[in-house]
Amino acid sequence: MSAHRPGSALRRWRQLARALLDEWPVIVACWPTVALLLLAGAFHWPEPAVTSTGLLLNTALLFGWGTLAALRAGCRRRSAVARRRGRGDRRRHRRGERGHQVT
Question: Is a pLDDT exceeding 80 seen at residue 102?
Answer without folding.
Answer: no
